[in-house]
Amino acid sequence: MKTANVVAMKGDLDHIVALAVDTERWPEILPHYRWVKRLAGEGDHKTVEMAARRGRIPVRWRATQDVERDGATPVIRFVHVWGVTKGMDVAWTFQHDGDFVRVTIDHDFNPPWPIVGRPIADGIIGPHFVGAIAGRTLETIRGIVEGRNPRFNPDGSPRR
Question: What burial letters (b/e) apply to 68-102, b meaning 16+ CB within 10 Å?
Answer without folding.
Answer: eeeeeebebbbebbebbbeebebebbbeeeeeebe
